Amino acid sequence: MRTIEEINKKIKSGKAVVVTAEEISSIVKKKGIKKTLQEVDVVTTGTFSPMCSSGILLNFPQPKPKIKTGGGTVYLNKVPAYSGLAAADVYLGASALPEDDPRNTVYPGAFKYGGGHVIEDLVNGKDIKLSVFSYSTRCYPRKEYSCSVNLKSLNNAILLNPRNSYQNYNVAVNLSDKVIYTYMGVLLPKLGSANYATAGMLSPLMNDPYYKTIGIGTRIFLGGGVGYVVWHGTQHQPNTSRTERGIPRGPAGTLALMGDLKQMSSYFLRGVSLRGYGVSLAVGIGIPIPLLNEEILSYTLVTNKDILMPVIDYSEAYPNGKDEVLAETTYAELQSGHIKILGKAMPTCTLSSYARAKEVANTLKSWITQGKFTLTQPAVTIDRLNNDD
Amino acid sequence: MIKRKYLLIFPEETVEKPITYNLIHDYNLMINILKASVTPGKEGRLVIEVQGDKKALANAKLYLKEIGVNIKPVIEGIRWLKERCVHCTACVPGCPSQCFVVDRKTMVISFEKEKCIVCKHCLSACAYGAIKILENNAG
Asked: Could you tell me the pTM of the whole model?
């Protein structure tokens, strides 16, 4: 047994032993579970992938005279933001598109610029054009306002993502005879490709499958800066079918995350353009798992071979909401570059980056090792969030 | 024997001439058509890989110039912007010439430019803006 306070003492004195979720398995193989638990304090995880349910909460300095944003419309570089909040508060979603974007009028649309790209531009320190159109009140007389804002001039810029870090996901294939364009990427016809997602054994929720250490207030790596888990994410589904070691056999847990955009970097926060689908934001997330006991350590020993993923047809079953799983495959097989399903071999690919996920886990590892990042005790862990006790 | 890639842009009046046939028949060149956009009555574009005798190739180029065909060497039709690439692998399956090679241990991508036939599949597969196309050379 070990507590978070004990781990933090070691972190502050520079003595904490931190390894990544990729490294922990081989250490346990060599030293056994008991010895490893004595020696290692923290396992770091990482993921990097488009996560459409992301966005930023902004507050801009009021002009003179003042303007009321609520009930009006607000644009950032022509991308509409949500303004049904107090004056000067706006929320820009990663998937928002300019009103004049042609969408899929000429199929497949290119979706060159949208919310995710505005977020990337802001993080890169670029100037963004803010336009507000509203109505006049006694306290907020101005009807129109436009100015240039950037990360420095904004009063607040907070990344606030309602659904990130999916625990496991579908493998998308295409049974039809035409190319289809989806949020999982370009799907080649007649089982021409298998498009998967997540960072497998590096994924945060794969290493704490029952959410026993992650909870409200868990301090994390978010987009190159420091963030926090604020709730479970939307569509969080812990009660899915699981393998013996607790790995869900499809999409299950999700996390809602928050962090100061002003600390982040575009290396870990990237606008993406998905052909024929829309825009999004790729987010780098890393969560430290404190090795509090043998059980917690045992969960971090998950390997890519242990992760079963459902193969779903995105030409018919997925769009129509049919629960048809064509086959199951493992993350390890997907990562080899080819899988075979329904008797057919096909190449695999992903829009998630395993290489960058590894960089996230290694960066978090070095922050903790250098004493720059300590762990937090969550107020409530996700597994107990909806319990009354 | 040399091997070169060219983009041929020919004005509408030459579209109906059997240029490829002449290159093969008169200059004994091996022609591999990589990409073609030829519509009668409109400017045509052809990306070819040519293999043959150095002198014959030089003569063939003179012939093409004489009949009004604009010849541009395809140096880099597709550019892979390494610093924008996140190494996700989305470009890998649809590439007919397997230009994008994944080191399966590190999951890091590299681009083997010489294999590229400028089909532009990667341009629609890449979500991160890591593929740029030089329209002049790529046709």
From this structure: 0.88
